[in-house]
Amino acid sequence: MTYDYLQGREFAPKGEAWDKAVAWWDSLRSDANAEYDDVIVFDAAEIAPTVTWGITPGQGIGVDETIPTPDSFNDNDRPLAQEAYAYMQLEPGQAIAGTKVDVCFIGSCTNGRISDLREAAKFAQGRRVAEGVKAFVVPGSEEVKEQAEAEGLDQVFLEAGFEWRNAGCSMCLAMNPDKLVGDQISASSSNRNFKGRQGSSSGRTLLMSPAMVVAAAVNGAVTDVRELI
User: Fold this and answer.
1) What is the CATH number of the domain that holds 75?
2) How far apart are CA 18 and CA 20, in angstroms?
3) Residue 158: band (very low, low, confident or very high) from pLDDT cuts 50, 70, 90
4) Which is it for strands 185-188 and 103-107: parallel, antiparallel or unpaired?
5) Neighbour-count burial of 22, counting CB atoms closer than 10 A to its CB (0-12 exposed, 13-18 middle, 19+ buried)
6) pTM (global) more than 0.85
7) Is residue 26 a part of any domain in this protein?
8) Residue 189 half-sphere exposure, CB side, CA atoms within 13 Å?
9) Angle made by CA atoms 138, 139, 141, in degrees to the nearest 5
10) What 3-state class would DSSP assign to 44?
11) What is the spatial order of strands in the sheet that 204-207 belongs to?
């Protein structure tokens, strides 16, 4: 699958160089009789869409779960959890679903790929951003932007009430006017949720997938995107 994705792309090796590259990549493959210290198998269908509730990407839970309580952490992790409760203004044991959002951001180098925008557009189609919610989409590159526009994805988002922007970092690190104000909460498809990451020293970031951002945007609150299927 990876080879199929790479072959023919602008900066991938061509011709004989491609064949040599594939041969080298194949040589890195684990031997058929390799022994492993541990093997873990996940059934992705059993993993609920995930949302962060705290101030690090690791502080995440399934959208159908509640915010963990202090006694669920060990002594080393408990202080960071206490800091997160206070900063995020969320209560231990509180359901993350239903948390109101002010800004919904789809984009960044992490989740601004054409596949991300296609998936998000499926859920934006025929729906509208909730009143009072600011929502926008920022493609991860100029190439992605052009491809999305060729496929009409920009029109899907615009008709749903999202703003369609030029490619860039945007609210991922608030390096331009796309910033939270005060203690606003954002549903963001970027990859970091540290204090002040999105431009306000008290702004709060909930990380989630692009499809989950759409669900939050149309409902004005954290929502399990599976409810929109």
Assistant:
1) 3.30.499.10
2) 5
3) very high
4) parallel
5) middle
6) yes
7) no
8) 31
9) 130
10) helix
11) 163-164, 134-138, 103-107, 185-188, 204-207
Q: Which domain holds residue 134?
A: 49-229
Lowest pLDDT segment from 18-22, 117-121, 173-177: 173-177
The two tokens of residue 66 are 């509640």
pLDDT of residue 139: 97
Could you tell me if residue 38 is inside a domain?
A: no
Other CB atoms within 10 A of residue 64 CB: 13
Q: Report the mean per-residue pLDDT for the chain.
A: 96
User: What confidence tier does 176 reach under pLDDT thresholds 50, 70, 90?
Assistant: confident
**Cβ–Cβ < 8 Å for 67, 94:** yes
What is residue 106's three-state secondary structure?
strand
Tokens 């190439």 appear where? 143
Residue 188 to residue 133: CA distance in whole angstroms? 13
SS3 label, residue 164: strand
Let me know if residue 192 belongs to a domain. Answer: yes
Cα→Cα distances 12→6, 140, 179, Å: 6, 19, 36
- Report residue 227 as tokens: 């409810």
Contact residues for 158 (Cβ-Cβ < 8 A; gap 6+): 164
Determine the angle formed by the axes of helices 153-160 and 142-150, rounding to 10 degrees. 80
Number of domains in the chain: 1
In a domain, 179, yes or no: yes
What the block records as the tokens of 43 is 């059934």
